[in-house]
Structures are given as C-alpha cells and as structure tokens.
Amino acid sequence: MAGDAWFLGSPEQSLGFILADEGFDVWVGNVRGTFWSHGHISLSEKDKEFWDWSWEELALFDLAEMIHHVHSVTSSKVFIVGHSQGTIMSLAALIQPNVVEMVEAAALLCPISYLDHVTAPLVLRMVALHLDQMVLAMGIHQLNFRSKILIDLLDSICDGHIECADLLTSITGKNCCFNSSSVDFFFEFEPHPSSAKNLRHLFQMIRKGTFSHYDYGMFKNLELYGQLNPPAFDLSLIPKTLPLWMGYGGHDSLTDVTDVERTLKELQAKPELLYLENYGHLDFLLSTQGKEDVYNNMIAFFRSLGKSSSS
Fold first, then answer.
1. Quick check: is 113 catalytic?
2. Which ranges carry the AB hydrolase-1 domain (predicted)?
C-alpha cells in the first residue's frame, strides 16, 4: 500500500486529514514500487533490477531517507505513524542510531515484527504452496495483483480450496467497522505493486518465525553476512527512551496478538497500548469510528510529549 492509504475515508475519518486538522505538519511517504514511486535515474519498472529489494531496503533506505528529509527541512524531530508493513519498516529503521536520533516518537498500527502466528487463510495457503518461489521461478519480479497473470494465479489458488469471494477477509481477517462502499473505494486505489522479493521475505518470516534480514541461502548468506543464517533485527537496540504507542486488534489475522506480545517482550521500552477486541487489520485505517476509537488516543499520546513536531 502507498501513502494514499491514509486518505481513503472521508476527511473526518482519515488519519492524514485528521492530523492536519489537529495542526500537525503531515508528510506522506510512498516507498519504491508503488504507483507514485516508479521514477528512477537509470532503470524502468520493466527491469528486473528495479524490483531487487524487500521491506529491508524500504526500512533502511527509503524510510531512513524520508525521516532525514523531513528532519532537515523542518529542523525538528519527527513523529512516525505506520500501519502493517509500515510498522515492520519503522521497527527495523529505529534500530539504527542515526535514524532514531531524528525521531520524537512512533505510533504503530497493527505492529508487525514477527509473523509466525498469521491465521489468514489465503496467506497460509499461498505460503504452503510456496507462491513466493513460484512467482520468482516464473521470472515475475513486479508483484502487481492487478495484472492478469497474478489474478489468474490467485483464482487457481482459491478455486475449490478456499473461500476468496471476500478477498479482504481471506487476507486480513474479519473487519468490524467499515461498510462495503469503503471496500469498493479501497480497491480503486489498493493494492499498489510491490516486489516478488518482498513477498518472499515476508513468507520467510512466516515460515521461520524470525525478524531477520533477507535469507539468500547458505552460500550467499556467508558471503554477505559472514554467517549461515541472516542476522536478526535486534528490537532491544531501540532506545528505552523512545516513546512508542501501539494499536492492535483481536480480529487481526495478520498482526496476531501472540506475535505482538513477543515484540513487546523484546523491546526495552514499554509502549502505550490500545487493544480493540473487535478490530481487524484494516479497521485501523478504514473504520468509520476510527477517530473516536483510535486516532484521538494516538493524538493524545503525541500531545503528552509536549512537542509540535512534524508527523
């Protein structure tokens, strides 16, 4: 997903608009691969090399550079807000001392660092069928679920094996608090393309229960990392002094409560937590009650820090 995810509801319901109305200086990030970020000085999106990255590069390069840019333009520390993949990126980026020194606080919606308790039926079937390896073996490097080849592939995965009529629920779990018109609007803009390598990295995490760098296989790992297995991202390196806020839901099939609890154990900091039993993965973006249920709490957390930093 891209930065437009923060503006998919009405102005009264979308976090991007709400933060601006509350007086925050709002900067919207779009990582590589999304429709807004296909520019490159030498490559086109048709080139294999254009797609040679996973969320690791999105964290250590894209997000790090965004934070640096906002910090340098505004001369103030930054509030980070991330959802889902944006939280994996945030946690990996905040381990880097040169990034965290520019950050005032982070608010993470559906925080993910571990994924081995995912229960989404379509995701689990794709993992079991090794869809990530299949796609790479077919020479597909751009993962665009609007393309005919991937639509056909999804149809064949669902056909007679799994109920995919409600695609969102089969991927994210049951969402409680938005209507069908929101779903139609969501699919007008989402999902954006990503890389097949990113899917592979996420599926590695589901299979192995790790929060680690990309696994290239034994020999390339030795060459790149100097060890057989890719090194883990050490969450305890995020400073205890960094204020963190996390919101997560009981019906989220991607951000499982067990995985969130594991993340919390590994952090030095004790984040402020908002747990909503009836919320699913996309409710944190699209709920018609999001302002009352989630965003007011997040904004109060930012205000309690006594700064008016850039968001």
1. no
2. 19-284
Spatial separation of the C-alpha atoms in residues 173 and 279, rounded to whole Å: 10
Domain membership of residue 157 as a residue range: 4-306
- pLDDT, tens digit (0-9, with 9 covering 90-100), for 252-300: 999 999 999 999 999 999 999 999 999 999 999 999 999 999 999 999 9
Quick: pLDDT tens for 137-183: 999 999 987 788 887 888 888 877 777 667 778 888 889 998 777 77
What backbone torsions phi and psi does residue 307 show, to the nearest 5 degrees?
A: -120, 155
pLDDT at 309 over 70: no
Spatial separation of the C-alpha atoms in residues 89 and 83, rounded to whole Å: 10
Q: Considering the domain boundaries, does residue 218 fall inside one?
A: yes
Residue 162 near residue 267, CB atoms below 8 Å: no
| Residue 281 annotated in active site | yes
Q: How many CB atoms lie within 10 A of CB 239?
A: 14
Query: 113: Cβ–Cβ under 8 A, 6 or more apart, which residues?
Result: 87, 88, 91, 211, 233, 235, 259, 262, 263, 266
170 is written with which tokens?
């089969």
Beta bridge partners of 245: 107, 272
Other Cβ atoms closer than 10 A to 181: 8
Per the residue annotation, which of 194, 281, 287, 309 is the catalytic one? Answer: 281
Q: Annotated catalytic residue: which of 4, 132, 215, 252?
A: 252
pLDDT band at 189 (very low <50, low <70, confident <90, very high): confident
Nearest to 201 by CA among 298, 41, 21, 58: 58
Give the length of the chain.
Answer: 311
Residue 311 counted as domain residue: no
Please check whether residue 238 lies inside any domain of the structure.
yes
Sheet bearing 78-83, strands edge to edge: 78-83, 103-109, 244-249, 272-276
Q: Which of 84, 253, 287, 309 is catalytic?
A: 84
CB atoms within 10 A of CB 7: 16
Tell me the one-letter amino acid at 115. L
Domain annotation covers residue 64? yes
